[in-house]
Amino acid sequence: EAQVTQNPRYLITVTGKKLTVTCSQNMNHEYMSWYRQDPGLGLRQIYYSMNVEVTDKGDVPEGYKVSRKEKRNFPLILESPSPNQTSLYFCASSQRGPYEQYFGPGTRLTVT
Amino acid sequence: SQQGEEDPQALSIQEGENATMNCSYKTSINNLQWYRQNSGRGLVHLILIRSNEREKHSGRLRVTLDTSKKSSSLLITASRAADTASYFCATALIQGAQKLVFGQGTRLTINP
Q1: Do B79 and B110 form a contact (C-beta atoms < 8 A)?
Q2: What would the pLDDT profile of B45-56 be if each residue is shown by its tens digit?
Q3: More confident residue, A97 or A102
C-alpha cells in the first residue's frame, strides 16, 4: 500500500530537549516536504526536498532542520524546541515537485 | 500574508445541495490544487488545475480557474455527509515553483 508514515504520532516534550520526527514514504517519490498546521493559519511549509541531498527552506524554517540522506526518509529535527513550535506537523511526498502530494497522518507535538 | 485566501471560512448545507468554495491568490501560479482534510487527519489531494486550464472535472467535483482574477472555485455537487471536511486550496508559484502555499481552508459541514 502506498503510504507516508510519520513517527511518533503524538509527542509531549519540554523546552530545549532535542527531538526528531521521522517521515518515510514507500512510493519512490523524489519530492518530500514538511508542513505545520496551526489554527487560523492553515498549513505552512517548513522545508522541502527535491531529491537526495537536496533540501531548501519553506516559509517557516526557523528552529527546524532536515536531512535527506535516503530517498525514502526525510526526518524533521528540532534542536531546541520551544513552546511556539507546538503544532500539528505533516510530512508529504510526491513524484516530482509539489504536485498531487500524499500526506502522512500527522504528528501532534506539544512543547511545554 | 497567505498566498491563498479562501471564502467562506465555514459553510453548512443540507445533504444533496451543492457546495461552492472560493480561493483567491496574489501572485502568478504554475498550478492550483485542492485538498481535503478530515478532522485532524492528513490531507488528501483532490484535483489539480494548471494555469492554462479554465475548468476541470473529477466525479462530483468541478474546479474553475480564472487567472485574470487570480481566483479559483471548487464545486461539490449533490453533497453527502461524507463530504464533511475542511477544504484547502494550494498554489505552486511560478517563482519559487517548488514551494506549495496553502490557504487557510473552508470548513464544510453537510447536514443530513
Answers
A1: yes
A2: 999 999 999 999
A3: A102
